[in-house]
From TrEMBL:
GO terms for molecular function: gluconate transmembrane transporter activity. The chain crosses the membrane at residues 7-37, 57-75, 96-119, 139-168, 175-198, 245-264, 276-293, 305-327, 347-380, 392-418, 430-451. Keywords: Membrane, Transmembrane, Transmembrane helix. Pfam families: GntP_permease. GO terms for cellular component: plasma membrane. It comes from the Bacteria. It comes from Knoellia remsis. This is H+/gluconate symporter-like permease.
Amino acid sequence: MEILHSAIAILAAILLIIRFKVDPVISLLIACVYLGLATGQGAEGTVTQITTGFGEIMAEVGLLIGFGVLIGALLHSMGTFGDLVDILARRVGKRLPYAMAGTLSTIFPSIYVDVQVVLAAPMAKESAPAVDRRIGLPWLAGAMGIGIFAGYVFVVPGLAAVAVAGLMDVPLGKYLIFGLPIGLATALITTLLFKLLLRRGFWNESTDLDEDGVVEDGVVQDEVEAVPAAEGAARLPLLVRLLPILVPLVLIATAAILGVLEVSNPVLDFLGDANIALFIGLLIAFLMVRRAIGADGVGSVLTAGFHTTGEILLVTGVGGSLGAVIAESGMQDTLKSLFSADANAPVIVSILLAWFIAAVLHFAIGSVSVGAITAAGIIAPVVGSLGVDPVVIALAIASGAMFALHVNSNFFWMFATLLRLSTKGALKTLTLATSLGAVVSLPLVIVASLVT
């Protein structure tokens, strides 16, 4: 019954938001209350899970969201993203979505997904007209989504990749050898398929963009963009203006690589923490803009950034509440009892079973990493009896865990708000792109099973 009630809660939230135009925060809270009471958590237990889930998400990503959005606002005021887009348009042009998907899936998996999206979203909004004035934004959004999560689950040191490999007792080097080409191929193929789908009239600007955003020359404008540019800072070399992004990325990546190598350095561990690294980036951006336009000018930029931050934090936190209520509903135990290992099952059946378990868990729980880790925890004790190389089962779990990232994910709401998409628009981009990626990567995992 937990699966049925979870499905009802999720579908009800989607229906309330899309059909009846109920605010996402209210819709998600209604879903939380229904699911908690329907699965026997009681009034007190339901409230506890709602508040606990909200608090845990805020502890995990609250500062990341705030710092990331403010960095984006300050960088925009310096004209950084516009100049960067001009360069990319000249050198990459309409291939930018492929470049973005490939880069996010192979170079940046060491950076946590929430950090990636808050730093990449402003560039995607700015560069949309250069890619395609009609479908540039949704195509880039889909490329961002699949690029981030293909790297997250397939490429070490992506969090989900490292976790699944560890639980399945697969050496990280072996996982990387198979996961890197699968992750890259998944990102690029999905980006192409997504473009073909958009070309068929799938995107509707009037309903798929956030009604609070303004469409101007094919790109979504928001409140932050109304702030006058910091002309003095804009005259700085582009590489200097990119330091608020580059410095945090280098610090975080260095700490992540050292962690994989099991090398400990207290100073780098501190500076490489995502919260500290982004705060350093924020300080660099703040000093650049303040020097150019003074205290009042930088205050106006930050005020606009704070407005956007509050909106993102609230809906992200409530998304975390729904995930916590679902996790407490007993979903994991229910799924575990539904599946049992069969030592005589063909390899492809074992792969499909692992993929399906991870997909269902992710769809219900709302976290790619938790879905993947939970699936690995269910399958790991019996993987030895399947007659399949554990790396193949681990990759199948990674593939399934990407399926249908939707409204019960805090990332979904960050993604939608940062790109100024409506709920329907986010479902058409992030949800569809990750679902396509899960389907595209499955046959690649089956092919990998033939060479292990």
